[in-house]
């Protein structure tokens, strides 16, 4: 049983799931929920529901990535759980369905707005895994939409704030678009063109967050934004100098895990500094998972 659970976790990419929880917590911070939060079970109940929702949605989406890539992985990544025979295609499919339904169920248990967003995330994840990831432009855009909707899932803790800040979903869309473009050369090596485009899009994201930090007068948020900048650009620079598969893989891994610091910067820029610290503390958790389980 323990061995099977480990295999399931391997399919779900727990290091990545931690970043999806950070997205939702950032959204909740943007919605201003942490301003008046009292430390009791009732206050944290909506936060827990939305975090459980994103765990299921992201985990299910990742599992279906391997389900739809099972035949290709036999050639390109035979070490993955399905082609290596550690788990059957049928088992992985049922796990993916269970996780997506888990995510949708927890979202609807909070509100209809959250539930609709969860359905949209599940649909976008399946669309990416089955169809759009095979297209150079549409695939990265689709993956970015998944993350943007995930941020909105957190903001949906307050419907009025969701109406006010829905456009912020564009930032994770741009960021994940850049990571997904970079990752296209992860197996066989990539072109410097994609890496430069990724670096330019990173800059757009950083400048956008910096703008909100300045206009909201929350200079303390730079405590999170500056290390985020370093963590994403350092491996990208090495990949640009030598765009081989392993270097690109490291840049992608850093980009995914460093999302946590971006989320912390969002939280701090909206005045939820203690929530930002908690989000940032998820970074070593994600990194520890990344040492045991694959990120890409």
UniProtKB/TrEMBL annotation:
Record has Membrane as a keyword: yes
InterPro entries reported in the protein's UniProt record: Prenyltransferase_related, UbiA_prenyltransferase, UbiA_sf
Residue stretches spanning the membrane: 12-36, 42-64, 110-128, 165-183, 195-215, 221-240, 260-285
Keywords for the protein's UniProt record, in alphabetical order: Cell membrane, Membrane, Transmembrane, Transmembrane helix
Membrane topology: Multi-pass membrane protein
Localization in the cell: Membrane
Keyword Nucleotide-binding: no
Pfam families associated with the record: UbiA
Protein name, UniProt field: UbiA-like protein EboC
Organism: Mucilaginibacter ximonensis
